[in-house]
Amino acid sequence: MKIQTAVQNQGEVMAEPMQSGPQFTSIQTINDSVNEASAWVRPLEQEMSRVIVGQRKLFERLLVGLLSGGHILLEGVPGLAKTLALKTLAAAIQTGFRRIQFTPDMLPADIIGTEIYNPQNVSFVVKHGPVFTNLILADEINRAPAKVQSALLEAMQERQVTIGEETYALPDPFLVMATQNPIEQEGTYPLPEAQVDRFMLKVVVTYPSVSEERIILDAVDTTNAPVNVNPVVSVEDIVRARQVVNTIYMDEKVKNYIVSLVYATRDPQSYGLDLHPYIQNGASPRATINLKMASKSLAFLRGRGYVTPEDVKSIAMDVLRHRIIITYEAEAEALRSEDIVRKIMDTIPVP
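-> structure tokens emitted (351 positions)
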């Protein structure tokens, strides 16, 4: 049996053998599964658009993280509705949600919980912290010192936390959506590199356009009454969609393209790129895995059962920008990690 693989150019179709699990699966079958499992995407978008004006890319990236089980870091100056976007998404999903406002005087126990002595029973009782829920909004995460930020490391990577001598599993799904202000802002601390790498995506939130800001102006009244958000998707819908995302087809050439993009951040000279003096550390293998899963999730949101190189290229910046550590020479020449990623994407041949 053959699988029907759609070619990006001209919408042509070619036959190519593929095996998914113990049986062969066709692209048409996967497409039908995607269309059925993504029925909630459009209603969710409409519900969020009632509260958030514009920010289409932000909404798409939030869903990519939700479908991939990856954590998301949003960066932007204050007042760009980062917190509002995450609160609205959580309200539209029928699941647990907690907001943690990070401050300079926080302690790790404020995140994961602690042991409290009970004098009546002459024993310690564990009090769980706000991390024990499905969706975590870590608001202004870089306003807390490093020891507090690091308290999230085990939770983000292992989906568990250790309090005293006991380890406690976190609920599923578990997703950390963090906001941060640029480190140039007063009163902020740069995130530890180990924690930054735990975020699947780093999304930079920009100012709205002139037309969007005009709509925002008309929508605001003096009462500041909150807009009621209706839940339109359940946890079961998300879990089912994740299972379909895992079945989305990715051609060998697309896989090689992903590996080339990531490997070029470590050894740019192998691809004819004179970027070695500007890169201190390239992206880790976690970037390769995340780029694959993010590309599949993006294909799902776009209603396809297969991944195209354009899917990879459109989300590669958000996967790689925070994983490349630049040198002092790059800073001296006003080069950012985004500039390096853009140069790599412009150079690596697209299959």
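Residues 285-301 form the longest helix (17 residues).
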